[in-house]
């Protein structure tokens, strides 16, 4: 077990800050076999804890805890042995972290946002405000927002007086990316009733297209919201009018987006906006 990480986690927990371990790459530990495929009864993609009673560190931000008995339990001890850092759930303690990933993002924040407590990171800074909001990735180049239903690395208490969450940060989360130019569509006639084979492409082409769309979303390292919207737009522009898209296909795209931090509501909004942009 990494004793330094454990001491840090227990100190934060004693201050009522929910914590969890992260693996190398700043990623949480995945579902155990019992919880795979939402079998535990929690909601998909760990968006809420659900009724799951799994003793392991199995549900990303939703596993964050202040209970020292859980933190030192055998299941969690195994995770701490493999952990690379400690994370915490900002929204649970009434905080929002503006994650600035590079010097350009820091320069933008200094010119745009009110000063607040600042914590240096490997490549940038965390600006921490009092108040909570919905978490969003890629609200602008190099900028993520981590608050409710999210986690942030613990990198120390930081310096400076913590300010109240400003409207300028909240406004970042409501900006919709500009619609991308629709791709050419060979079969732009009236929509079919739905569920039939695509008249201008083979079923294998659709299968490849959905797989590539999932891969594009999964590979996004920034601007996730914009990537999801453009990917939805591309899929709809190619297959949205011919009736070959099923709820299963759409569910796969939504699941990929939610695994990157998008909420179900944001997925639905992005899908609706893409349809509107294409006149569907």
Features:
280 residues, three-stranded antiparallel β-sheet, 36% helix, globular
What does this structure look like?
This protein is of the alpha+beta class. It contains nine helices and nine strands. It has helices at residues 3-14, 68-71, 74-82, 103-112, 167-172, 203-218, 224-239, 247-259, 264-277, and strands at 19-22, 85-88, 95-100, 117-120, 125-130, 136-140, 143-146, 152-153, 163-164. Strands 3, 4, 5, 6, 7 and 9 form a six-stranded mixed β-sheet that branches. Strands 1-2-8 form a three-stranded antiparallel β-sheet, covered by helices on one side. A hairpin with a 2-residue loop joins strand 6 (136-140) and strand 7 (143-146). Helix 6 (203-218) packs parallel to helix 8 (247-259). The protein is globular and about 55 Å long. 37% of the residues are buried.
Give a count of the beta strands, DSSP E runs of length 2 or more. Answer: 9
Order of helices and strands: HEHHEEHEEEEEEHHHHH
Structural class: alpha+beta
The helical percent reads 25-40%
Q: Tell me the number of helical segments per DSSP (H or I, 4 or more residues long).
A: 9
Largest sheet: 6 strands, mixed
Distance between the termini: 55 Å
Into which percentage range does the β-strand content fall? 5-15%
Question: Radius of gyration over alpha carbons?
Answer: 21 Å
The overall pLDDT average reads 81
The low-pLDDT segments are: 175-197
Shape: globular
